[in-house]
TrEMBL record:
<feature type="domain" description="GH18">
    <location>
        <begin position="361"/>
        <end position="676"/>
    </location>
</feature>
<protein>
    <submittedName>
        <fullName>Glycoside hydrolase</fullName>
    </submittedName>
</protein>
<dbReference type="InterPro" id="IPR001579">
    <property type="entry name" value="Glyco_hydro_18_chit_AS"/>
</dbReference>
<dbReference type="GO" id="GO:0004553">
    <property type="term" value="F:hydrolase activity, hydrolyzing O-glycosyl compounds"/>
</dbReference>
<dbReference type="InterPro" id="IPR011583">
    <property type="entry name" value="Chitinase_II/V-like_cat"/>
</dbReference>
<dbReference type="InterPro" id="IPR017853">
    <property type="entry name" value="GH"/>
</dbReference>
<dbReference type="InterPro" id="IPR001223">
    <property type="entry name" value="Glyco_hydro18_cat"/>
</dbReference>
<keyword id="KW-0732">Signal</keyword>
<dbReference type="Pfam" id="PF00704">
    <property type="entry name" value="Glyco_hydro_18"/>
</dbReference>
<keyword id="KW-0378">Hydrolase</keyword>
<dbReference type="GO" id="GO:0008061">
    <property type="term" value="F:chitin binding"/>
</dbReference>
<feature type="signal peptide">
    <location>
        <begin position="1"/>
        <end position="20"/>
    </location>
</feature>
<dbReference type="GO" id="GO:0005975">
    <property type="term" value="P:carbohydrate metabolic process"/>
</dbReference>
<feature type="region of interest" description="Disordered">
    <location>
        <begin position="330"/>
        <end position="355"/>
    </location>
</feature>
<keyword id="KW-0326">Glycosidase</keyword>
Length: 680
């Protein structure tokens, strides 16, 4: 029955409703007790709905850092014939849905045996659009080995620029196509990577899909031709009223009752497509890596296998399309996410290994103060403990930070515990900032405010120093600031001055560390500006008083190494490549006249995230860097074949999670570091 107010438990019910916001027809599908809005016409009615299409090949231009050289360009114009000849616009004999177009077969597969109607995309009108990508909104990677190119670009920026040039397309679907591009969300390249986006552009009210066509990509990119484009096209038909500019991980458009688990075990959220990345439950790629799911092959084309609505609701029927076996069972709910300061399940069942051979290497960890986990309970392998966080106080003058002891602590108790840990030769620092916190020092008067606020925190609790964790968009480089050696961005200039004043006040033993995201130092090898390279001026300006730098190898997108090849996170190669960029220095944005100098090995640590990858991979990366002995699974060759025996060590977020997981990280990396021989 097609009665939208009735709750049915089987395949679902289809019912036409009036065209909602956007520029394409929509109808309602009811599955179980949930109603969903889908694009097109009701396939349970014996009618044909036709959707006019404006196909927009995008020409993206990237600035060239070398004076006198033209911009580098990725142009999708040449991909148009392949797209119009593909199952997006041409009929193909699908296993389910009939001999028809990809999205029509998707809708008919959802309807099942009741399908008698069609929704067809008409022959498109082609309108090319050119967009310049400023340094802060993306970059171009190329493989030295195979010559393949792929860009990593801000999807919201592209959407804004597209609809500045393209007026509202009444009654039409805009299909915007890039060539060899993967995307990041919320103007933050640590929220990478996505195949594109879709929904209704609020500025114009136009229904659109933004995706990419892949051809001659680097070998590390595994999807091909129209696969990334069909993933976003399918998600649009399953969720046409999605708002792609909604910040955070809040779903818009169609929302399911329970968060669903992805193939990787991560929680996809409650939307059609995963939170932030708009990936499918069929995706198997690691967070921050190039998207990949096993494709469905149609002639020479690769199509995205996607979840149908019954998969999300748990009803009976077909769960995936085109390959019905891609998702043989309905969605599984996300596991409960336990807050870091929760008490449940935090008592370890095994002991931390004693630290009896403490040499020059250090295991560094962040402690965020779990309720039943005191500072004095920190396992013996940890050498430098960083309390997280002192946060910006936006109700006070700019530059102010405030710190509140963790739950269960009075200031006096925390002071005593810090003193006790320091008596055991541990260093205890306070981290400033943290993810999701915005910090600025635009005005000169923010310098004394910053120094005063931080001095009070350090003095009251007895911290050994400060750790700087101001993440994107904090400290983004101004558009006219091109030389890290002579920065002009006010917040950066004033922060350097404030940290120097703190060091002068507390003396030579005062520790200052930097914990940049991958975008904030290593990415500067390919692009400089905005979020990219924002910690270069800090590292350079504080180089004589800097204690250590530990790049977050987890909050980081695919990047290019000193060997000219592209690597992605959660691999031995990536840890070696990222760390050697810091150890060896590099030409900023590829410009040989602007070299970022090496940071000494005894001031460099590798940054890890507990739960992000296996401890064995983390150990392999550190051991490779220390000894130069290349693991069997590594392809990256160190520039310095003997390795870096003076490497300071490794950092983890968090000590708390390591304890909950029975010290599976500190018991692996700690003994390796504490028994390793350093070269002095």
């Amino acid at each position: 029955m097609r009665v939208k107010w009735m709750c049915l438990s089987l395949l679902g019910v289809l019912s036409v409703i009036a065209q909602a916001q956007g520029t394409v027809p929509v109808f309602q599908y009811t599955a179980g007790d949930q109603a969903f809005t889908l694009a097109g016409g009701d396939p349970a009615k014996a009618t044909t709905t036709r959707i006019p299409v404006t196909l927009v090949p995008l020409k993206l231009s990237f600035p060239n850092s070398r004076p006198g050289l033209p911009p580098r360009v990725l142009d999708a114009t040449a991909d148009v014939p392949s797209i119009t000849s593909s199952p997006i616009f041409q009929s193909f004999a699908f296993p389910a849905g009939g001999n028809t177009q990809y999205t029509d077969a998707l809708l008919r597969s959802t309807a099942g045996s009741t399908a008698t109607g069609h929704t067809l995309l008409e022959k498109p009108v082609v309108k090319a659009v050119s967009i310049e990508i400023p340094a802060g909104h993306g970059y171009l990677l190329s493989s030295k080995k195979d010559g393949g190119k792929i860009a990593v670009v801000d999807m919201q920026y592209v959407q804004h620029e597209l609809f500045k040039q393209l007026p509202k397309q009444d009654g039409r679907l805009v299909l915007a196509v890039t060539h060899n591009v993967t995307f990041f969300a919320e103007a933050d390249d640590t929220i990478c990577c996505a195949t594109g986006t879709h929904g209704v552009d609020k500025a114009t009210g136009t229904s659109f899909v933004l995706g990419s066509y892949f051809a001659k990509t680097p070998a590390i990119v595994r999807e091909r031709d129209i696969q990334p484009l069909t993933q976003q096209l399918a998600e649009f038909f399953n969720d046409p009223l999605h708002d792609p500019l909604m910040q955070g991980n809040k779903p818009t458009g169609n929302v399911v009752q329970t968060g669903w688990a992805m193939a990787t075990g991560a929680c996809g959220g409650r939307g059609i497509g995963s939170a932030y990345f708009l990936l499918q439950p069929t995706n198997t790629n690691h967070k921050n890596n190039f998207p990949f799911a096993e494709p469905f092959t149609a002639k020479q084309y690769h199509l995205s296998n996607v979840a149908l609505v019954p998969w999300y609701t748990g009803g009976s029927g077909t769960y995936s399309f085109p390959d019905k076996n891609a998702l043989p069972a309905p969605a599984k709910p996300c596991g409960a996410r336990r807050p870091d300061n929760s008490t449940s399940g935090s008592v370890p069942t095994s002991a931390g290994i004693p630290n009896d051979q403490r040499g020059a290497h250090r295991l560094i960890g962040y402690w965020n103060g779990s309720r039943d986990f005191k500072l004095t309970d920190v396992a013996p392998q940890w050498d430098i403990i960083i309390e997280a966080f002192a946060v910006p106080d936006h109700s006070a003058p700019e530059g102010t930070l405030r710190f509140t002891p963790p739950n269960g602590y009075t200031p006096e108790q925390l002071q005593a515990d810090i003193a006790q840990m320091k008596s055991k030769s541990k260093k205890v620092m306070i981290s400033l900032g943290g993810g999701g916190q915005f910090f600025s020092m635009e005005k000169p008067e923010s310098v004394p405010t910053f120094v005063d606020a931080v001095s009070k925190i350090v003095s009251q609790y007895g911290f050994d120093g400060v750790d700087i964790d101001f993440e994107t968009p904090s400290l983004d480089i101004d558009a006219n600031d091109h030389d890290f050696r002579h920065p002009t961005t006010p917040s950066i200039v004033h922060l350097i001055e404030g940290l120097r004043q703190l060091h002068d006040k507390f003396g030579s033993g005062f520790m200052i560390s930097l914990v940049p995201e991958g975008t904030q130092i290593p990415a500067a090898a390919v692009v400089y500006g905005g979020q990219f390279g924002s910690y270069l001026p800090l590292a350079y300006g504080l180089r004589d008083i800097l204690s250590f730098v530990d790049v977050q190898d987890y909050n980081t997108p695919p990047l290019q190494g000193l060997d000219g090849e592209i690597y992605q996170a959660a691999t031995t190669d990536y840890h070696a490549m990222m760390t050697e960029l810091v150890l060896r220095g590099f030409a900023v944005a590829g410009n040989p006249s602007l070299m970022f100098p090496p940071i000494p090995a005894d001031k460099v640590a590798v940054g890890f995230l507990t739960g992000y990858e296996e401890p064995a991979t983390m150990r392999a990366g550190v051991e490779y860097l220390l000894t130069g002995k290349k693991p069997a699974d590594a392809t990256y060759k160190l520039v310095h074949p003997a390795g870096y025996p003076d490497l300071l060590g490794a950092m983890y977020w968090t000590i708390d999670a390591d304890r909950r997981e029975n010290y599976k990280y500190s018991n692996v990396l700690g003994p390796l570091l504490h028994t390793a021989t350093e070269k002095r």
